């Protein structure tokens, strides 16, 4: 049975990839999706936020608009805005974190809510108490569950058993909150998202997978360069190909970083050694030789190129002269936008929100 399932999956993937050779380009020539903008925000109350695959283009646009609305009103205008007063959130962290914990905990408090941080030493999740039982208890005591975990299946199980919304703070498969922050950062820089060419250079990991779910819906072409053996998940690629076809964008895969960097507007990378892969460190560093983003690589990009990294950063991933380039590197703005993006998600899953600032033009030319 398992062999048949794998064989069917492989046949489906091969049919989508028919005629594609060393450098693979998917979705080119597809009819562009209709641009639909709603005058009122689509309600997302009560939904889970586990992957961008679950959200439409208009819903992602709304989350980005709300994040920018909150940033303007709270940071710039110094407005006291606490729509989540009296609400509580359980924060489950199996993995250590700087940006995810700070952005979520401070963001929920800014909105008037009470976040409760729960480390593996604080609760019985999946050890002395099943995920099913934990989810049912947490959802009776809190209005929201936020989880940063290893397996995507843990998030799926929490969401299945909780009657309150569950937000992914990261799993080994996806990191959707990071991509929302990236999109906000690019909108602030370019004044648009549609038409941007994004190059990913590095491991085919959870950040890559979330870009694959988000970029097509925003009208962005995505090019991915990974070493042989470190490609993206095949099932995620299947979904991404379908999204690219649906939205008239392209996804390109290659093993040549310079090829994907050519004329790209944005170049993105991440750690070569994720949490849990420490034993593979030396092998990975060797395999990723030639994937360091440096001046030579960015010289092939568009003139107004920008660099993104979700942090923390290691010198082998990107040289100092690119990472600290004040004109082109947006890593600090990107890190700050983690707060505004998660605030938008937390707010929309608990109650509807009407923005008071002008809607950004995500499709500007």
From TrEMBL:
<dbReference type="GO" id="GO:0016597">
    <property type="term" value="F:amino acid binding"/>
</dbReference>
<comment type="subunit">
    <text>Homotrimer.</text>
</comment>
<comment type="similarity">
    <text>Belongs to the aspartate/ornithine carbamoyltransferase superfamily. OTCase family.</text>
</comment>
<keyword id="KW-0028">Amino-acid biosynthesis</keyword>
<keyword id="KW-0055">Arginine biosynthesis</keyword>
<comment type="pathway">
    <text>Nitrogen metabolism; urea cycle; L-citrulline from L-ornithine and carbamoyl phosphate: step 1/1.</text>
</comment>
<dbReference type="GO" id="GO:0005739">
    <property type="term" value="C:mitochondrion"/>
</dbReference>
<dbReference type="InterPro" id="IPR036901">
    <property type="entry name" value="Asp/Orn_carbamoylTrfase_sf"/>
</dbReference>
<dbReference type="InterPro" id="IPR006130">
    <property type="entry name" value="Asp/Orn_carbamoylTrfase"/>
</dbReference>
<dbReference type="InterPro" id="IPR006131">
    <property type="entry name" value="Asp_carbamoyltransf_Asp/Orn-bd"/>
</dbReference>
<dbReference type="GO" id="GO:0000050">
    <property type="term" value="P:urea cycle"/>
</dbReference>
<protein>
    <recommendedName>
        <fullName>ornithine carbamoyltransferase</fullName>
        <ecNumber>2.1.3.3</ecNumber>
    </recommendedName>
</protein>
<keyword id="KW-0808">Transferase</keyword>
<dbReference type="InterPro" id="IPR002292">
    <property type="entry name" value="Orn/put_carbamltrans"/>
</dbReference>
<dbReference type="Pfam" id="PF02729">
    <property type="entry name" value="OTCace_N"/>
</dbReference>
<dbReference type="Pfam" id="PF00185">
    <property type="entry name" value="OTCace"/>
</dbReference>
<dbReference type="InterPro" id="IPR006132">
    <property type="entry name" value="Asp/Orn_carbamoyltranf_P-bd"/>
</dbReference>
<dbReference type="GO" id="GO:0019240">
    <property type="term" value="P:citrulline biosynthetic process"/>
</dbReference>
<dbReference type="GO" id="GO:0004585">
    <property type="term" value="F:ornithine carbamoyltransferase activity"/>
</dbReference>
<dbReference type="GO" id="GO:0042450">
    <property type="term" value="P:L-arginine biosynthetic process via ornithine"/>
</dbReference>
